User: Fold this.
Amino acid sequence: MVLSRTEARRRPYQGPHRFLEWCRGGRGLSNLEAEILKMLGRRAEGATLCPSEVARFVSPDDWRAEMIAVHAATDKLVSRGEFSLSWKGEPMPRRKGPYRIGKPSQ
Assistant:
């Protein structure tokens, strides 16, 4: 979404979570966070979730546009310790490059 100068002045940048919520028409990240947790809860023990799976579930037609919001929700959930990140079986302390979402015990 591209904002005009007038819109940008009316709605100053307030951090990624509030800005993304506003850009997405009021559908807050809390819904996206809940969806990530719900999808992960349906997985078998030890299974992980790709962030693009969440984006494709939320918006099948324009999933790439949702990836920014998925990354922001992922960062928020990781900071709260609600799940862990890994890549090729190796744990990751924070999101950097490709990653998978897993339950904290993994």
Remarks:
- The two ends are 36 Å apart (CA to CA).
- The first helix runs from residue 5 to 10.
